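Reopening this ticket.

The earlier resolution said the output was attached, but the attachment link was broken on my side. Pasting everything inline this time so it's all in one place.
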Amino acid sequence: MSASLETATTVSAPERRTQRWVLVVCCMSVLLVSLDVTIVNVALPSIQQGLDATVNGLQWILDAYTLVMAALLLMAGSMADRFGRRRIFLLGIAVFTLGSVLCAVAPSLGFLIAARVIQALGGAMLNPVAVSILRNTFHDPKARSRAIGIWAGVIGISIALGPIVGGLLVDGPGWRYIFLVNAPIGIAAIILAARVIPEGRAARPRRFDAVGQVLVIVLLVTLVYGIIEGARLGWSSPAVIGCFAVTVAAVTALVLYERRRVEPLLDVRVFRSIPFSGAAVMAACVFAGTAGSLFLSTLYLQSARGYSALEAGLYSLPAAVMTLVLSPVAGRIAGKHGSRWLFIAAGLARIAAGLLLIGLTLHTPPGLIVLAFALNGAGMGLANPPISATAMSGMPAAQAGVAGGITAAANQIGASLGVAILGATLGINATGLTGPAYAEATHTGWLILASIGALIVVLGVVTTSRGALKTAEKAATELMAE
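Inline output:
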């Protein structure tokens, strides 16, 4: 009998019940965090009217959340290892729930953006800590894989449900309830987590890298701020140029500083592997295309075509369905035949989606829009699993956590940049655009979406080449030796 089977048969009934409840709580946490990535999009036009927000303001409502998540994901895991996974998990749920309530009662745009930052502070503590809790609760490898698979599947479900649930709430009680709905789920998760999640921490936690964390925050905030505000202030304005200069300085300082640390926040040595570096860039590209196109299409469907929030949410359903259906298929194909053709197919799907919408008008047939959205979702479903596989290829086991954290952060960074870049293409007068003028203003954004698809194709070919795979082997050898 194998070791894994022996472990499985020795699990007592009480322990099995505890494992189930731990999985339920972890799934509740990822539902909260992931749902808020997509549920807010369909509420943007209503928020714009209710709080008299500009398009720049709407971009910050989305990017304040994804940006803070991206900046703090790498730190959250080490915090849990040092202070206790249960403690940090409970703190994360509490902070996220508090931020949600503050979002629901926000009297102004600035207040709402600040509350979104609080939400993200809590959310950043949940996903990486939840994975750690599951790994330490399910000792049998097969049971652990099933549990993490179920947990990850909830992310796909939340992506699919977000726009529809958001549409129902916006068209019903109002946009504030898209945040208020988190409160009862959060309170229930806190009560359950306090009862069923065991405390645990690493025997030797990583040292806290305060300098590295500050540099990551500075470079991300200045980069996204420069892109979003560049459309309003002008790309040659001193403030925007200054932002980009600080970004470059922060990147340089981060690389130089992290290379000298024994336990860095961001181990830059992993970037010696071309497959890993390419996978991180592709992850950012995939999520940039998804988040940016969702931002443009939501405003187009509601502000330009006059659809209700629910109708706009239903339009995004084909993309979510394609992502859900193709992700497991792509994972199996990547395991048997490699990732190259999946990347090429994903990039081509994104190119087709962008080109179909590049001439968008108020009279574009709904079927064409649905097809473009479905292709966009197909690009996500085909690319995501092989990105993870490519990022981990040749990576030593000791660096797997670092690689996974960087890839997860790349997803959030890409989402932030997608909203910033595609939103900036609307121009400084986007707030006053309606009907045909708004539809025409999106054309550059769809061209960028197609360009992102082309970049995914190129990166997919490069990262799976023989030369690239040799750099992964060399990097793995150097990492294990150091």
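Reporter confirms the inline version is readable. The chain has a mean pLDDT of 84. Residues 97 and 183 are 5 Å apart (CA to CA).
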